[in-house]
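WARN retry 2 of 3 for item q-0093 after timeout on previous attempt; input resubmitted unchanged.
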Amino acid sequence: MLILIPSTPAMAHGYISSPPSRQAVCAQGKIADCGPVIWEPQSVEGPKGQRNCHGGLSQFAQLNDDSRNWPATSVAAGRVTFNWVITARHSTASWEYFIGGTRIAVFNDNGARPPASFSHVVDLSRYSGRQKLLVVWNVADTPMAFYNCVDLQVGGGNPPTTTPPTTTPPTTTPPTTTTTPPTTTTTPPSTGTWAAGTAYATGATVTYNGGSYRCTQGHTALSGWEPDVTPALWQRV
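OK item q-0093 returned
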C-alpha cells in the first residue's frame, strides 16, 4: 500500500516593528487602504531572490507602491537598531539588508531558530536623507523568504530651530502667589479582555484566560497573537 504524506508548510512569520516596516505602519493604522496586510503584517512571504516589498503577492501589492505617502522614521546616521517581532519561529538561513539594490548587511543564522523578539544593528553611516531599506528573511529549509521595507530619514531630518529668548522689563506690580494643587498619580485602568482587532498601547493591561497581561510593545492585536503565546508583546502580571 502506498501512503502519501503531505508536506508540512513553513510556519515562519515575522516583521520589523521598529523602526516600523511598511506592514507595521499599515497595522498601526498610520496609512489608509493597505488591504489585508493590516491584519497579518507578519505574513509577507514569497519565493527567495526577489527585491520588492510585497514578496510578489498580489494581496500585498500596496506595500510595493512607492507613490504612496509612506511616513519615514528619522534615525541618526551611523548604527541603527532594527527590532523584529516573530510570531511563528522557523529555522533561518540569513537576514539580508539592502538599499538601492546594494546589500549593506547580512546576518547568517546557519539554521538556528530566532527568538520571539530580537534586534539587528546595521551601519547606515554611508547614507543620508530619505532611504527605502529592503530586508529579506531567508528561511533555511524552504524556498521561501519574508520581505520587509522600512522608510527612513537618515540623519534625522532638519535640525530644530532655536528661538532667541525675550526680555521682559521689570514692573512694580507685586508678584501674584498661586497655589498649585498636588499631582495625583493613578495607575492606568485595565483595557478589559483581550480582543483581536484592538489597538493596544505600551503599558495597557488586559485579561485573558483568567490571567492579567501588560502590553510591552504597542500593536494592533491579531488572531493568533493572544497574550499567552506572544511574550514579545505581552508580559504576565
